[in-house]
Amino acid sequence: MIESVPVDVGLVHEGERIRKQEMQLELGGPGVSAKWELVRVVPPEAVEDGRVRIAGPDIRDLAEGGKYPLGILVEIAGPALEEDFEGVIERRIHEYSNYVEGLMHLNQRYDIWVRLSKKAYRAGFDSFEYLGRVLLHLFKNELPIIEAMQVTFYTDPVEVEARLPEALARYEARDARARGLADEEVETFYGCALCQSFAPRHICVITPERYANCGAISWFDGRAAARMDPKGPIFALEKGDCLDPVHGEFAGVNASAKERSMGEIDRVWLYSAFGYPHTSCGCFEGIAFYIPEVEGFGIVHRGFRDATVNGLAFSTMADSTAGGRQVDGFHGVSLEYLKSRKFLQADGGWDRVVWMPSEILERVRPFIPEGAADRIATENDVHSVDELQGFLREHDHPVLARWATEPAGTQVATVANLPLEVGGYRIILKNARIYADRVIILREEERR
């Protein structure tokens, strides 16, 4: 317990899920446009150590069941702190918030999603002051290089919106720094275990050309974190021999995956969504999903609220992507990875992308090979796979070359856990690979 905080605080609560019917209120998340969290290293005179400020209505002032904007600004000072540490320390907001009983924190940066349970609220957790005290206590105890710290919670919608551009500019400045470095130029990658409470078999492998799936940790951030806190959740990972430069398979990555997943994962391909794809937790910014009818990939980000071109929403596909499993064709990615030269390298890269939301297409357009962006359909162009096929033909998309050589739908699909009822017996296939030229699924009444 932390003195004067009315609920328990500890590692045991990390990974707690709060369902809609259990929540008192929601902050950020898919239904709220403006939300962010930011850590800034500032001069000592700019920090009032231990201060928690609430700019806007407090938890007790917000109606039960509502969804509200939120901005979290953590300002820190200390002679050993560097600006390079900001992104790493910022990611700890996610970890430490989840130590609070009855509080769920997901995602990062401009995509945070926080839920408070009714049980915690009834226990007295009715103010951001308590969360501020938790963050102050844990940050200063876990990271002694922080000598002074203050926390501000912004809940006034006008304030949250007005400060969002500053946060976005800070994120972009960090990301831009990492774009010039290639995986071949370093001997050390970094691993992140911050989300293992949600996905025990998952470890993010962070390379110069493959950001953490959450989009918050670059290779430079990983290096800074390992230096700042050698025993922390972000650690150095010797990449070892390159076993396959196209798929991105490295001996050191395989060894680390096997050790840290307790033998469940023993191979990882960093640049492919098939075979042995990089695992995902639940904080990925986007999903690259295979569309077998066109032999191509769609990409959808967490903020896209409608059904994608295959009829499935982000939330539905996220269930197939998360949990630390290796599921062919469902690949959790950061949006920064879309800008990488190694993006789905083994699968055809941008020549294989056929659909994505217009918002993301425009955001990453400068990083897409010349001429490719205009051949990618968006929600404004097509609304079904049949329409997508027509669009791709009309725009002479490079994926058409695959149609002539590969029958659509013959890609291998991994079934992590498929139950079947046969003659009164229940058959469960685990980690099975099923090969089929064609699969037809009919309703029972249609079959008859």
Compressed to H and E, one letter per element, the order equals EEEEEHEEHHEHEEHEEEHEEHEEHHHEEH
Mean pLDDT: 89
Q: What percentage of amino acids are in beta strands?
A: 15-25%
Number of domains: 3
- Alpha-beta content class: alpha+beta
Topology (elements, then pairings):
Blueprint: E1 23-28, E2 35-41, E3 52-55, E4 67-68, E5 70-77, H1 86-97, E6 103-106, E7 113-117, H2 118-122, H3 128-142, E8 148-154, H4 157-178, E9 188-192, E10 204-206, H5 219-228, E11 234-238, E12 242-244, E13 249-250, H6 251-260, E14 286-291, E15 296-301, H7 314-321, E16 330-333, E17 353-355, H8 358-364, H9 385-394, H10 400-405, E18 413-422, E19 425-434, H11 444-447
Parallel strand pairs: 1-4, 2-5, 3-8, 15-17
Antiparallel strand pairs: 1-7, 5-8, 6-7, 9-10, 9-11, 12-13, 14-15, 14-16, 18-19
Description:
By secondary structure, the protein is α+β, with helices and mostly antiparallel strands. The protein folds into three domains: 11-178, Bifunctional carbon monoxide dehydrogenase/acetyl-coa synthase(codh/acs), Chain M, domain 3 (2-Layer Sandwich), CATH 3.30.1650.10; 183-399, Bifunctional carbon monoxide dehydrogenase/acetyl-coa synthase(codh/acs), Chain M, domain 5 (3-Layer(aba) Sandwich); 413-447, no CATH class. 24% of the residues lie in helices and 22% in strands. The protein has helices spanning 86-97, 118-122, 128-142, 157-178, 219-228, 251-260, 314-321, 358-364, 385-394, 400-405, 444-447, and strands at residues 23-28, 35-41, 52-55, 67-68, 70-77, 103-106, 113-117, 148-154, 188-192, 204-206, 234-238, 242-244, 249-250, 286-291, 296-301, 330-333, 353-355, 413-422, 425-434. A four-stranded mixed β-sheet has the order 4-1-7-6. The protein has a four-stranded mixed β-sheet with strand order 2-5-8-3, sandwiched between helices. Helix 1 packs across helix 3 and helix 1 crosses helix 5. The radius of gyration is 23 Å and the shape is globular. The model is unreliable at 407-426 (pLDDT under 50).
